[in-house]
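ok trying this again, last paste got cut off
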Amino acid sequence: MSPYMDATSNNDCVYYCLEISSGSGQHVVYFAPHLPSVMWQPSDVDASSLRSITAYIQDAEVSNIKQPIFIDVTEEHTKWGGGIIGKLSRTGN
């Protein structure tokens, strides 16, 4: 992702990345400080994973990670995150 973002870094762009099945939250917390122009949206279907992600975010003290949302990929995408995904212009994995 970095080479693409570096090319537009002078444009004050903010990118949005939906991470599907974030698990413990380790990956999003690692990438967030390295890619500050990305606003991260972690997600998971498992309640214990959502709690873990929240704890990792609190410990990381970064401002470019949103609180995790519940996503069950077996449901229609319009239901993901309580309907929030339909409001995003782009999603990535």
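PB: full thing came through this time. Strands lie at 15-19, 38-44, 69-70.
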